[in-house]
């Protein structure tokens, strides 16, 4: 049983994969005796509420995206001095740098751990400021005791960017299979609320509207597949030009939405460990996904994996699942859930983080 005190520093607590992962990880670590507080650079966010409701102290640093703010750094320094953490754990590029800078002054004896959840980025898709932050991260990557990735693809990509190889380690995401599970009793009501009849084949696309997710390519693939309706859930998806497909923006009832669907689809150009695919599979859905990050390990033989940035290949795979009988899809979905339960347990993930704090 650990008695470590960990201060998590994260860029925001809006709805997103990393933010949701931390919100799920923190209670599991607390059950192992790890005392934690969370400092968030940008105020607000649904997961800030979730964590507070679970009894965690969440410090809001009052910073703005893309705007350095010395007042936020001072607030973080005060948090560190008051909490006296054994470990300062940064989450995502900006928060990693902020955590390193402030820890060196306010908690010099604490262990520093960074978390990076992305793989490679296309420079054309992102601004110069983020590219600079990544370069600074590589330059300072010997400062942390460990830089944690959720996929081997992410580890390799960042080693190629100049991050110190001996600091890089992989802890794959754990999936909450109690939260994400088949909910057959919710299917009819959710379909009705989305304006979908029972005969429609529905594909869940759970992703924020970001260039790396290639949602326009996914829309094109769904259109070409014919007879399949996509349900897009995630920040900014309600602004998509998606034609006949359903665009919901950010929602809090993703497990229930998955119950109304027949497959989960990911059309990303790059990923590390895409939680959305694994969570959809845990909900009993076959997966169709592009060959990015650890997708082949996640999907296994429980769906289709196709090349990235190839809408026609993605479309053909979507059509292949759509043309199965409902019984065939259900059997493939049951196998998908069993695969996630066996291979991507949250308990193993929590064990590895707890061990990292100790050693």
UniProtKB/TrEMBL annotation:
Pfam families: Glyco_trans_1_4, Glyco_transf_4. InterPro entries: Glyco_trans_4-like_N. This is Glycosyl transferase|GT4. Its EC number is 2.4.-.-. Signal peptide: none annotated. One of its GO terms (molecular function) is glycosyltransferase activity. Gene3D superfamilies: Glycogen Phosphorylase B. Keywords: Glycosyltransferase, Transferase. It comes from the Bacteria. PANTHER family: GLYCOSYLTRANSFERASE. It comes from Candidatus Phaeomarinibacter ectocarpi. Coiled coil: none annotated. Residues 16-178 form the Glycosyltransferase subfamily 4-like N-terminal domain.
């Amino acid at each position: 049983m650990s008695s470590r005190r960990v201060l998590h520093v994260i860029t925001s607590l809006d709805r997103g994969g990393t933010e949701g992962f931390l919100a799920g990880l923190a209670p599991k670590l607390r059950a192992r005796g790890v005392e934690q507080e969370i400092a968030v650079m940008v105020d607000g966010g649904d997961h800030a509420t979730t964590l507070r409701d679970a009894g965690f102290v969440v410090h809001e640093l009052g910073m703005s995206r893309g705007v350095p703010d010395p007042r936020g750094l001072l607030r973080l320094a005060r948090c560190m001095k008051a909490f006296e953490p054994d470990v300062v754990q940064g989450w995502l590029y900006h928060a990693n740098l902020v955590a390193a800078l402030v820890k060196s002054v306010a908690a010099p004896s604490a262990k520093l751990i960074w978390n990076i959840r992305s793989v490679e980025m296309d420079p054309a898709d992102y601004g110069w400021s983020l590219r600079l932050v990544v370069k600074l991260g590589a330059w300072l990557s010997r400062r942390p005791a460990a830089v944690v990735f959720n996929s081997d693809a992410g580890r390799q990509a960042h080693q190629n960017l100049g991050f110190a190889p001996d600091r890089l380690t992989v802890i794959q995401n754990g999936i909450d299979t109690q939260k994400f599970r088949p909910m057959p009793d919710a299917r009819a009501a959710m379909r009705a609320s989305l304006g979908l009849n029972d005969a429609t084949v529905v594909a869940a696309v759970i992703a924020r509207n970001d260039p790396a997710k290639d949602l326009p390519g996914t829309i094109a693939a769904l259109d070409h597949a014919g007879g399949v309706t996509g349900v897009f859930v995630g920040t900014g998806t309600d602004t998509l030009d998606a034609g006949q497909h359903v665009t919901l923006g950010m929602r809090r009832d993703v497990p229930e939405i998955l119950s109304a669907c027949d497959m989960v689809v990911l059309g990303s150009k790059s990923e590390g460990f895409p939680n959305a695919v694994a969570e959809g599979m845990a909900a009993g859905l076959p997966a169709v996904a592009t060959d990015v990050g650890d997708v082949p390990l996640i999907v296994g033989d429980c769906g289709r994996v196709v090349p990235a940035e190839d809408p026609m290949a993605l479309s053909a795979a979507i059509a292949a699942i759509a043309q199965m009988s409902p019984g065939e899809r259900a059997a493939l979905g049951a196998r998908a859930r069993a695969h996630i339960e066996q291979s991507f347990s949250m308990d193993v993930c929590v064990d590895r983080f707890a061990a990292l704090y100790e050693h």
